[in-house]
User: Fold this.
Amino acid sequence: MAGSNKINITPPRWLLAELTYACPLQCPYCANPVDYANYQTELDTEDWKRVLTQARKMGAVQLGFSGGEPLTRKDLPELVKHARDLGYYSNLITSGYGLTEAKIVELKEAGLDHIQVSIQASTQELNDHIAGTTSFQHKKEVAHLVKKHGYPMVLCVVIHRENIHQMADILAMAEELGADYLELANTQYYGWAHTNRDLLLPTQEQFEQAEQIAQAFKEKVEGKMKIYYVVPDFYEDRPKACMNGWGTTFLTIAPDGAALPCHSARDLPGMNCPNVKDYSIEQIWNESQAFNFFRGYDWMKEPCSSCDEKEKDFGGCRCQAYLLSGDMYAADPVCSKSPNHHVIQEAIDSAKASALAENEKPLVFRNSKNSKKLS
Amino acid sequence: MTLNPDQLIKFSPLHRLQWEEAQQKDVILYPEGMVELNQSSAEILKLCDGSRNLAQIVADLEQKFATTGLTNDITAFLEVALKNGWIQQN
Ligand code: SF4
Ligand code: SF4
Assistant:
C-alpha cells in the first residue's frame, strides 16, 4: 500500500486546525472522536504558528479554525493574524457561543476572512435541546453581527431526524438572517453521530421531502445565497469521494498535534498518525505511513480494484468502510457494488424501528462524562 | 443579473483575489472554495477596482497587450464573474 514511488503526491490545499476539543455545546452528532476526553494536551501558540507556516509553504491556502469551540482558545486572534500574514484565507467554524461584537471586530482586524456559525434548528426549543445549551437567541444575534461587520456570512445547519421536518423554516431563517452561504449538512455518521445513529438517521421519505424543499429554495435564491448541500450518503448508491482522495488535498491537525488525513483516521487500526511536535508538515505529508496509506489505488480490493469508477470516488470513505464492515480496505458499504451493502439497509431499518418504538432511548450528548464512559 | 456597460465594476469585498506562489496562478478565494484563474481572466479582474466601466477595462487591456477586438471575450467573462458574485456594480 504505502509509498510506491509512482504515486504523484499533490500538495495540501486545505488545512483544518482543530484548536481544541473544549466546547460548551453538546451536539449529539459532533464529529469529534467519542473518546475525545482522553486527549487533554493541546498544542501551544508557537506550535500552531509553526504548523501554519509550514503548511502554507507547501501550498495550503484555505484554513479552517475549528474544534470543539475554537473561541475557547485565548490565542485565536494571534493565530488569525499569523494566518493572514501568511496569505491564508481563513474561516472560523464556530457555534457562536462566547462570540461578542468586540471579538468579531478584533478578529476582523486580525484578518479573519469569514465566520461560519452553526445553528441547530429553526426554533429555540429544538436548537437548545440539540445543542444541550441555551444558545438560540445568541446565535441569531451573532449571525447579524457577522453580517454587520462585513464578513461573508456562512450559516451551517446539520440535518438529522430531529430537525429535518423544519427544513422549510430553516431555509426561511437563513434568508431572514441574510446568509450569503448556507451549508445544509446531512449528518455523516462518524464520531458521536455513529453512537446516536438510530436516533438521528431520517427515513428515506423524510429525506426526499426535505431535499425537494431545499432544491426549490436553491433555485429561488440563486445569485443571492449559495447553498452547499452535503448529501446523506446512506441514501445514495455510490459513496462520496472522501476527502477528495486520501492525502491529496486535506490536512487536519487535532488539538494534541496529531496530523490526520481525515478526522477519524485515528480510529483506523495500525494507523500511526504522526504528531507535528515530532515532524515537519512536509515530512508528515510526503513521508509518513499514515498519509501514504491509502494514496493511489494499489491498496484496493475487489470490487474497487477493477472498478471503472475508482478514480471518481476512490472507493469511498475508509473510516466508513471500517466502521460498517470492520475492514478498512473494503469498498465503502454505501456502494451498491459492495458485498457489505446490506448493512446500510440494516442501519436504516434499525433507525426506523427505533423511531417507532414506544420508549425511544435518549440521545447521548457529547460531553466529557459521556466521553469517558464510552472510551 | 446582467452587466451594465456604463456602470463602474469592482471586485467583490466578499471574495479575495490573490497570487498563489505554490500554484503559480492567481486564484479567487471565498468561503469553502477556490477558483484557479488563467492569466487573461486574472488580468481582467485586476482592473475591476471600482474606477473603470466595461469600455475602460477593454481599452486598458487592448492597450496593454497591443491588440484590438477584445470586447466580446471580456464581456463574456465579466458576465460569468458577475453571476458568480466575483464582481459587483454600483
Ligand atoms: S458539533 Fe457541537 S459539540 Fe461538537 S464541537 Fe461543534 S458545537 Fe461543539
Ligand atoms: S466498487 Fe469501489 S470504486 Fe467502484 S463505485 Fe463502488 S466504491 Fe467506488
About this structure: The beta strands of chain B are 9-11, 16-20, 25-30, 33-37, 49-52, 87-89. DSSP finds three helices and six strands in chain B. Chain B has a mean pLDDT of 93. Chain B touches chain A at residues 1, 13-14, 16, 18, 20, 22-23, 27, 29-34, 83, 85 (CB under 8 Å).
